Amino acid sequence: MKLIVGLGNPGLKYNKTRHNAGFLLIDRLCEKLNVQLDKNKCKSNYGIYRYKNDKVIIAKPMTYMNLSGEAVKSLMKFYDVDVKDVIIIHDDLDLPLGKLRMRHSGSSGGQKGMGNIIDLLGTKDINRIRIGISNDKNIDTIDYVLTKFSKDEMKVLDDVIDKATDAIIYSLDHDFELAMSKYN
Fold it and tell me: Which residues touch 156 (CB under 8 Å, ≥6 apart)?
């Protein structure tokens, strides 16, 4: 069993904001795999995709970004998912807009949702896909991550979301390391 979680903030107010890059990727993945996020449990909206003889849980935490670990830990416990079978998708201020980085371990890099997940799971060894959202040093970070992408930025973001979606699907057949070497 695998668990794929895109981080973001619930509610229309946060739709298409920089901090919701993880939610945007989950939306695209669900569209490609024809999955509905029709379950609401474990502090998440999620759906289950049957891939070969395995289940893949695709989820959006409904806890708000800074408490994402509560949802991830709850889903892992409820479905008995091992941490090696988890992929977290989140925004990254330190990457240029449209860049993708896959890692199987590391710090949160200041991303509060990822930090909460690391704290609650007690390990930094968590597969993650970081989506670059750039950074504007002239705007307070909290305000910046909650701004919406412009139309031009969305075009750039669409390309990286497609690439990351392909990487996730590829990782279902191959190990995450192979996906990293192909898509980083």
Answer: 97, 98
Classify each residue of 25-44 as buried b or exposed e, where b means 16 or more C-beta atoms within 10 Å of its C-beta: bbbbbbeebebebeeeebbb
pLDDT in tens, 61-101: 999 999 999 999 999 999 999 999 999 999 999 999 999 99
All domains in the chain, ordered by first residue: 2-183 (3.40.50.1470)
Whether residue 80 contacts residue 3, with contact meaning beta carbons closer than 8 Å, is answered with: no
Q: Give the DSSP letter string of 117-177.
A: HHHHHT-S--EEEEEE----TTS-HHHHHTSBPPHHHHHHHHHHHHHHHHHHHHHHHS-HH
The C-alpha atoms of residue 179 and residue 167 are separated, in whole angstroms, by 6
- Residues labelled as active-site residues: 19
Chain center to CA of 157:
14
